[in-house]
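Hi F.,

I've been meaning to write this up properly since the lab meeting, where we talked about keeping a consistent format for the predictions we share between groups. The idea is simple: the sequence comes first, exactly as it goes in, then the structure tokens exactly as they come out, then a line or two of notes. No screenshots and no reformatting. I'm using this chain as the first example so we have something concrete to point to.
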Amino acid sequence: MSNPVIETEEHRALRDAVAALGKRYGREYVATVVAEGKHTDELWAEAAGLGYLGVNLPEEYGGGGGGIVELSLVLEELGAAGCPLLMLVVSPAICGTVIARFGTEEQKRTWLPGLADGSRKMAFGITEPDAGSNSHRITTTARRDGDEWVLNGRKVFISGVDIADATLIVGRAEDARTGRLKPCLFIVPRDTPGFGRSPIAMELAAPEKQFELTLDEVRLPAEALVGDEDAGLLQLFAGLNPERIMTAAFALGMGRYALDRAVDYARTRQVWKEPIGAHQAIAHPLAQAHIELELAHLMMQKAAHLYDAGDDMAAGEAANMAKYAAAEAAVRAVDQSVHTLGGNGLTQEYGLASMITAARVARIAPVSREMILNFVSHQSLGLPKSY
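Output, unedited:
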């Protein structure tokens, strides 16, 4: 086990700056955006102008030269202020990282500056209706036709396609040597013929909409392929590990926001002689929630540092653990926070009830907690598979 991560002064300064930005917007801003059917354009633009959106991308392409450590910090602090930006998980963390690591020079010049300054967004399409969490069952296919690629398939629960300039699609191409299908990644511009989208009605109240995608004989030039055709799994997990780390940051920010609201309430709400927070039945569950969030935070930091250090194997294990721990901690923190407020916890005034649904997203996406337990039992503990 590595030593606990201690943040640098630069990281603490970045936290303070992002927290100040988040405080200017807050939960009410997001609630208004959702109610009006809009997007968080103002917050996105200001965060971009301050250099936060591309903090993980290379400096030579307009980024901050940092890593997932810094980007996860940005998302966590915005979430703790009540205004998380889900597209941070997708656009700079997944797509930006994959292109920065494996893209051609032309792809880097075309996409990274815009992803860094917020002027362009990219969605990520991997999930399919019949594959669930099993990426090995992806049926979206890519076949060669002369100098072009032709894609066919369906994707589901793809975030932000309506506001993305392109989607990084995970398909499967035939290996010329073995005949087996292997994963490959393609940049599909939004208006490409044959690339269709339809919104999915969700109970989740969020600015980012979810879509089902159809790819019907989508023709792409050879340069749409990202990276080496024969290195698909390496490239895929170069995006999936940051996705898990950023999901952990998303969950931690949410849990911190809910817990802060509950602690403020418990400190001031008085129905007997002392505020309700003086009673152990109220105080202890909140203390437990705080401990669990702090422990998950340490695991997220470990995962981010391992990833930025280039240790993909160790980062994969840590990223899965971090996502699991943060999701569980966030769900319990939100639940206990709502319970602490009693009836007030279900009112719009306090804005906690909607987080009950939102918190469960981290348990389900981008991979379920059960699949993470499978990963840990097989990869970490060496136990046999049941499938």
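Notes:
Residues 27 and 373 are 33 Å apart (CA to CA).
The first strand starts at residue 122 and ends at 125.

If this format works for you, I'll send the rest the same way.

G.
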